[in-house]
Amino acid sequence: MARNSFGAPTASTKKRVAAASAAELDRIAERMLSAKTLREVFATKTKAAPKQR
After folding, report:
1. How far apart are the first and last CA of the chain?
2. Distance between CA atoms of 13 and 40, rounded to whole angstroms?
3. CB 46 within 8 A of CB 39
4. Is residue 46 part of a domain?
5. Distance between CA 1 and CA 36 in Å, rounded?
6. Total domain count, the chain
7. Residue 15 contacts residue 42 (beta carbons within 8 Å)
8. Domain residue limits at 11
C-alpha cells in the first residue's frame, strides 16, 4: 500500500518501520489511510485541536 501511494521507501523508512513497536505500527497504518505524504505518516506530533472558548 505504501509503495503504491508514496513510492519506494528509503532505507531509513524501512529501518524505522522494522524498529517500530506494535502500537507505533498501528498508528502508522492509521495515518497511511489519510496521509498525502510519508512525512505525514511518520509525523511524531499531531496537530492539537483548537481550543474551545
Report:
1. 40
2. 13
3. no
4. no
5. 13
6. 1
7. no
8. 2-41
Phi, psi of 38, deg, nearest 5: -65, -30
Grid coordinates belonging to 2:
505504501
Helix runs in 1-53, H state only: 2-6, 11-19, 22-32, 38-41
Q: Is 52 inside any structural domain?
A: no
Half-sphere exposure of 21 (CA within 13 A, CB side): 2
List per-residue pLDDT tens for the chain, 53 residues long.
566 678 888 899 899 999 999 999 999 999 988 888 888 888 876 555 555 66
Residue 48 belongs to some domain of the structure = no
